[in-house]
Design brief:
Layout (H helix, E strand, L loop, with lengths): L1 H22 L13 H24 L4 H10 L1 H28 L4 H13 L7 H8 L12
Helix pairs in contact: 1-4, 2-4, 2-5, 3-4, 4-5
Length: 147
């Protein structure tokens, strides 16, 4: 759990550093600002598809049967492994979208995708109660049978 929190905080800190460098320190990162419209369109399309699909995958990752069974049997080792994968995917999306926002000269679509990814991050925050809930099998509800 400590490893996951470290990954989470590192992702947020790296994104904040990119933001501060781009907006306040005015570091010149717009290397693709003169790129053609076709290049911009292709990169935006790929990133929109990646962002939407990976956000959905990361939010649903622990609901897949194979991963769920692994979490129930190996508990902390599986949680560290699958949690790192989930945070790594979301972190990569957040950092790449933030970098592309500045690299394409403040192109708004990349900024919007970075904000959407940032809004998803609290839903995967590795708190103690969430980690415990994800490695504990849910008890089936007792249904009363009518005779």
């Amino acid at each position: 759990m400590t490893k996951l929190k470290t990954i989470f905080i590192t992702i947020i800190a790296m994104t904040a550093a990119i933001y501060l460098a781009g907006d306040y320190l005015e570091v010149d990162m717009d290397i693709f600002a003169g790129a053609s419209e076709t290049t911009l369109y292709v990169v935006q399309t790929v990133m929109v598809l990646l962002t939407l699909s990976l956000i959905y995958l990361c939010l649903r990752l622990f609901k897949f049967k194979g991963i769920q069974n692994d979490l129930y049997t190996r508990k902390s080792e599986a949680l560290a492994f699958w949690g790192s994968i989930r945070l790594g995917l979301l972190g990569a999306l957040l950092i790449v979208n933030t970098l592309l926002y500045y690299m394409f000269g403040n192109e708004a679509n990349f900024g919007h995708m970075a904000v959407i990814t940032l809004l998803v991050m609290p839903f995967v925050y590795p708190s103690a109660s969430r980690c415990e809930a994800e490695v504990t099998p849910a008890e089936p509800e007792n249904k009363k049978e009518e005779v």
